[in-house]
Amino acid sequence: MTFKFDKLYRLGAWGAAACMIAICALIALQVTFRLVDALLVLVGMSRLGISITGVSEIASYLLVGATFLGLAYTFVHHAHIRVTLLITRLPAAIRVWFEVVALLIALTISLLLSYGLVGLARESLQYNDVSSGFVSIPLWIPQLVLASSVGLLCLALAEALFMALRIAIRDPSSFREATAPDDSEEY
């Protein structure tokens, strides 16, 4: 399957990668500051006392971003876990309709989740909700990342659903497993 919005899904994956890099950088910086303090105490000097306030809170928000921003990319590249033990034994003409039903269910759940997350972000923005940790982060920011990430997944699911429906209606016997990567994909 060739997805038309693959560049958009790749952008989400790059956002997930940036979140992971930011987590690594924050943790590495915090560890470095602690090591410098420990070495200074070891040689008899006083600590510098430098630390990043709220690093665990910021890292947890970045982890949510890293997890959710990669959803659409992993879906279109068939990296999500699929249980196909029974479906693989069916003929392609029947299997494609199982795929359509599964995609419809996944899209419905994702749309409901996206709708709820947009409402949550809107409410947090309206009431100026902030996190309760050391750093007061406006909650609409991570909630907007969540909502846009699930929105990207909805787009990928809708695109896959339309492709599966087209195959199911035109030529159901030509359906291939979604977990089988295309020969045209580059690794």
Descriptive report:
The structure is a single chain. With 187 residues, the chain is mostly helical. It has five helices and no strands. The protein has helices at residues 6-42, 55-69, 71-76, 92-126, 140-170. Helix 2 runs parallel beside helix 5. The longest helix has 37 residues, at 6-42. The radius of gyration is 22 Å and the shape is elongated. The model is unreliable at 179-187 (pLDDT under 50).
- Binned strand content: under 5%
* Largest sheet entry: none
Oligomer: single chain
Structural class from helices and strands? mainly alpha
Rough outline: elongated
How many distinct beta strands? 0
Distance between the termini: 15 Å
Q: List the helices and strands in order.
A: HHHHH
Low-confidence stretches: 179-187
Number of helices: 5
- The portion of residues assigned to helices is 55-70%
Gyration radius from CA atoms, angstroms: 22 Å
How does the SSE layout of this entry go?
Layout: H1 6-42, H2 55-69, H3 71-76, H4 92-126, H5 140-170
Helix pairs in contact: 1-2, 2-5, 4-5
Short description:
The chain is mainly alpha-helical and 187 residues long.
List keywords for this structure.
5 helices; 0% strand; 187 residues; disordered C terminus
